[in-house]
Amino acid sequence: MYYFIGCLLVIAVIFFIFFHHRKKVICKKLDCMSMEEKCEILCPLIEPFGYCYHPSQDIFSTTVDAPQRMFGYTALFDRYASQFNMAIDCMPVYFDYEECTWMIEFWKGQYGINVGCEVGIYKAQGLVSVLGRKTALFHSVEDHEMMPMSIRLFRGNTEIAHLHKNHWWLTAFQMGSYCEPEELWVEAGITFPNYDMLTAFVHALEEQGHGEYCVCGLQIQIRFDYCSTCFLKGLQRFFFRFCQWRNRILCRLFLWVTNPLCLGIDRLLCLFFYLPGVFRRICKNKKRKKCCKKCCRKCKKKHHCKI
After folding, report:
1. Which of 108, 202, 261, 272 matches a 20 to 30 Å C-alpha distance to 193?
2. Taking the CA of residue 259 as centre, how many other CA atoms within 13 Å lie in the half-sphere pointing to its CB?
3. What pLDDT, on a 0 to 100 scale, did the predictor assign at position 18?
4. What's the pLDDT at 284?
């Protein structure tokens, strides 16, 4: 028995020394690479998952042709978000324009081991009633319907990220950070194609009663600091707190495994060389795939959802 335990300890020590040496070699390799060389390796790895990297800010974002675009969005995604490692505040704004119900939604919070925010533009195939909006599937807008959008993500008085682009789903994620959703706030800007659409959106925003805004021409600036997770109760509150507990552990584990690296690109490449299976799991967006299948089973009969 003691001989068996001793053998296990020896094997464990050998594995520890081997992986520690391997990690040191990887870190040394990354130190010798330029930012351009790192981006040449990372970009082809994350683009199939719909992500891109911004080296000037050390943040990750989503591409216009991200595969998540084909899935659209439904309010049920937000309800089940905590079951997929996402503890997020959300603020959907529904409005009717040109015989269609549109939805522009804002998100902020903890996405697994990332802190981030999102702004997405979606529309239904026709007009949707107020009650039907909770289960209706909203499709991602086409290229000609995308709008110039900007986001600035803050934690307290510290700016984490800022982006501006013509997009349908503008996002910003800082890897290896942890915080509560209510600690974050977003300054988002959207430039509408015409005054009628802007007016319809503003009226819907005022009826909802969340978010300070300012209009200048066809552009609206919105301060999103609403805490939707503060009103969770019962099982939803339990799943939210469990999700954050799990995210905190995963974030600390990620920082420990990739120590002493600092930049997000270095940490992610370290995982790619060191633990490729973990790298692929981090890059996968379960929010739009697994969650989509689960939610669409509930709305398929009423709205003929096809995925």
Report:
1. 108
2. 6
3. 46
4. 65
Long-range CB contacts (< 8 A, 24+ apart) of 167-170? 167/64, 168/64, 168/69, 168/120, 168/121, 168/122, 168/140, 168/141, 169/62, 169/66, 169/68, 169/69, 169/118, 169/119, 169/120, 169/121, 169/140, 170/61, 170/62, 170/118, 170/119, 170/120
| Residue with the two structure tokens 């909802």 | 208
Pairing of strands 59-62, 86-97: unpaired
In sequence order, what are the residues at sequence separation of 6 or more whose Cβ sits closer than 8 angstroms to the Cβ of residue 226?
89, 91, 210, 211
Distance CA 179, CA 123 (A): 31
Which helix H or strand E contains 286, and what residues bound it?
A: none
Q: What is the pLDDT of residue 299?
A: 47
Distance, CA of 75 to CA of 79 (rounded, Å): 7
Q: In the numeric block, which tokens belong to residue 1?
A: 């028995």
Residue 124, pLDDT score: 95
CA 164 – CA 47 distance, rounded (Å): 19
pLDDT of residue 2: 47
The pLDDT value recorded for residue 252 is 96
Fill in the DSSP letter of residue 33.
S
| pLDDT at position 29 | 87
Are 175 and 60 in contact by the 8 Å Cβ rule? The answer is yes
Amino acid at 287: K
**pTM confidence score:** 0.85
What element of type H or E holds 174? strand 169-175
Count other C-beta atoms under 10 Å from residue 102's C-beta: 22
Q: How many Cβ atoms sit within 10 Å of the Cβ of residue 267?
A: 22
Say if CB 170 and CB 163 are below 8 A apart. Answer: yes
